[in-house]
Design brief:
Layout: H1 5-32, H2 43-53, H3 59-73, H4 82-116, H5 121-146
Helix pairs in contact: 4-5
Length: about 150
Amino acid sequence: MNSDEPGRDSEATDHGLDAEAEALRQRAEQLRHTEALPDVPTEAEIEARIRAATGGRDLTDFRRSVERAQRSGRDAPESGSKSDYRGQALGLHAAYVLLGFPMAGAGLGWLLDRSLGSTWGVGVGTLAMAVLALVYVITILNRENRR
């Protein structure tokens, strides 16, 4: 083995790294001279855009209408209020009833089938409990709407 072969490999590697570094420097220089972000619009430009978007209305009219909309929104219940939680609780209750009652009916029908040796218990139990679930949920919703 020749002793100067490792030196040739390191020289080739150094030359390859120098070429890559030079290419990266050139790319960085190109990026410095390009505009990556647009200029931030001035307040006058923003107002002109708003006038164009609102059909030429004055900005003060636009601000008044926004303030009016904000004031009217103050009467609405805030997120996290009791009425918000009550609605969530009612929805979850209805969902669990609509899913749970028919499942319970299927389980009771299966037990009935096992004890009697029949095949109709699961179907009848599921159907009967599904009807009961609908009646119960409608009753709960009507009661809540009357409040």
